[in-house]
């Protein structure tokens, strides 16, 4: 387990032990009665938690010990103390750690020693989930440190927003594709859903002062404006969104080598569901929703099912591969969608780590074929909600009528 060289080992360890004692002292404010009656869900941290336990990463601040003990979900003040422990000096958080882990003194020492590192992100449901958890704990306990950390996290989110309304994957900005406006893995919409709670007076944010609330309202409106501006248009016809958009031009952009600029149905679903929740939508929002709904309907793939099957195990450069996937013809299968559709042609699109465009799952290497979500059923969520939305806001216009 590594310790940052910037702090002496003895001083950092002492600080970590003091922090642990201090946290346990405050955690005592959560009575036994509270533990039995109140549970604050830690499900939003699942993605990071799974990465921490499931993927060995030498760059981690700390890695799990064998049989790492964990707090019960009801022990929300202790979990919140962990969240504060991991919060960086700039107000954001690093990804891929378990907020329920009962850290050893050595692990606490290393985490505390990393606070000045500015490698902070929204990826893998990070930062915006921490902010909301802290807000809920403060609402339950009225312990000031949770409010302070929560507001610091909100300030970080507001500072990270581009002038055009979008958010990068990492902030402060780093080299490469993480600078792009990132819809991938729910980063952008995770932030927007958090801001939506504040804007619409979620009781867990009743402590927010008027100045911060005004800043959040402005960021929220800019975020909606950026969503509308990044919707992909092909010869004037709107479709959906890409996983990532260039932070300057707003055009679809490459992310990882197997994530090409394209119409990305999986990521677009949460965007449309968000827009559909807006009360009294203006004409631009209505057009955006209608266009995306039409795109989802037109991009359905029929008679197709993806099945996973056992295959000889092997170790790739990236992971142990234990199975394989194939596309089979099935007239009874419900409609399905590919994750990517080629810009300009609308063809189902696949890619590999060499960034070459492919047009069937069978052409993708087994490591990527079995290790990535190339197909999705998620657009069906939008199509099911559309009739009610359409009757309420556009009763005279139904894009699904033939």
Automatic annotation (TrEMBL):
Q: Which Gene3D superfamilies match?
A: 1.50.10.20
Taxonomic lineage is:
Bacteria, Pseudomonadati, Bacteroidota, Flavobacteriia, Flavobacteriales
GO function term, MF aspect, one? pectate lyase activity
- Which keywords does the record carry? Lyase
Per the record, the domain of life is Bacteria
SUPFAM superfamilies from the xrefs? Family 10 polysaccharide lyase
InterPro entries from the UniProt entry: Pectate_lyase
Annotated protein name in UniProt: Pectate lyase
Kindly give the Pfam families that the UniProt entry links to this protein.
Pec_lyase
Which EC number(s) are documented for this chain? 4.2.2.2
């Amino acid at each position: 387990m590594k310790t940052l060289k910037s702090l002496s080992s003895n001083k950092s360890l002492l600080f970590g032990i003091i922090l642990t004692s201090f946290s346990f002292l405050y955690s005592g404010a959560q009575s036994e009665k509270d533990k039995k009656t109140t549970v604050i869900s830690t499900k939003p941290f699942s993605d990071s938690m799974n990465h921490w336990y499931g993927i060995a990463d030498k760059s981690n601040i700390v890695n799990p010990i064998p049989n790492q003990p964990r707090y019960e979900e009801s022990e929300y003040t202790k979990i919140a103390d962990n969240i504060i422990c991991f919060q960086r000096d700039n107000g954001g958080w690093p990804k891929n750690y378990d907020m329920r882990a009962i850290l050893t003194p050595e692990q606490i020492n290393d985490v505390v020693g990393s606070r000045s590192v500015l490698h902070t992100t929204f990826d893998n449901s990070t930062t915006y989930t921490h902010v909301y958890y802290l807000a809920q704990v403060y609402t339950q306990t009225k312990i000031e440190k949770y409010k302070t950390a929560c507001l610091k996290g909100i300030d970080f989110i507001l500072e990270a927003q581009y002038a055009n309304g979008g958010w990068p994957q990492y902030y402060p900005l780093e080299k490469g594709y993480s600078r792009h406006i990132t819809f991938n893995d729910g980063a952008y919409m995770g932030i927007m859903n958090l801001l939506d709670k504040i804007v619409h007076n979620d009781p867990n944010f009743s402590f927010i002062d008027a100045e911060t609330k005004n800043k959040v309202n402005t960021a929220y409106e800019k975020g909606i404006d950026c969503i509308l501006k990044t919707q992909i248009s092909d010869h004037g016809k709107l479709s959906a969104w890409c996983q990532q958009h260039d932070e300057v031009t707003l055009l679809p952009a490459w992310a990882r080598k197997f994530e090409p600029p394209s119409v990305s149905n999986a990521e677009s679903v949460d965007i449309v569901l968000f827009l559909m929740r807006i009360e009294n939508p203006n004409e631009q929002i209505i057009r955006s929703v209608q266009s995306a709904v039409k795109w989802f309907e037109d991009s359905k793939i029929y008679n197709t099912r993806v099945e996973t099957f056992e295959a000889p195990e092997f170790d790739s450069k990236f992971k142990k591969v234990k199975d394989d996937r194939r596309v089979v013809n099935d007239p009874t299968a419900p409609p399905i969608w590919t994750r990517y559709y080629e810009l300009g042609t609308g063809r189902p699109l696949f890619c590999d780590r060499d960034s070459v465009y492919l047009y069937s799952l069978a052409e993708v290497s087994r490591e990527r074929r079995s290790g990535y979500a190339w197909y999705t059923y998620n657009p069906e969520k939008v199509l099911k909600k559309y009739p009610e939305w359409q009757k309420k806001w556009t009763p005279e216009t139904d894009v699904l009528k033939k």
